[in-house]
Amino acid sequence: MNRNETAQLAYQLWEQEGKPSGRDVEFWLKAEAQLRTAPQPPVSKRKTIRSQFDLTPATPRNTAPSVAGAAKMGTASASLTKRRRKA
Fold first, then answer.
1. How does 42-61 read in b/e, with b if 16+ C-beta sit within 10 Å?
2. What is the pLDDT of residue 2?
3. Residues lower than pLDDT 70 in the chain
4. I want to staple 10 with a disulfide (CB 3.0 to 4.6 A). Which of 26, 27, 33, 50 is the partner?
5. Is 78 among the domain residues?
6. How many domains in the chain?
7. Is-above-0.90 flag for pTM?
8. What domain range is 25 assigned to?
9. CB of 35 within 8 A of CB of 1?
10. What is the pLDDT of residue 85?
């Protein structure tokens, strides 16, 4: 059960009841209770965080522009880069 699922179900319950005002906590708690008691799919069929995102570490690389490269381009960043490196 996650926050997004709870919010979606609470919204549906709120709509079914005619969108009454001032009862948001009631619908949130009902949604949580329903999701807690709902049957969960087997672990093998659930998406895991690892399967949703590529968690392999990126290869380190130098992403900062070089002072010499910035100076060749004649950009204002060359002077900024020089000042940062001195500090």
1. eeeeeeeeeeeeeeeeeeee
2. 87
3. 41-87
4. 27
5. no
6. 1
7. no
8. 3-40
9. yes
10. 56
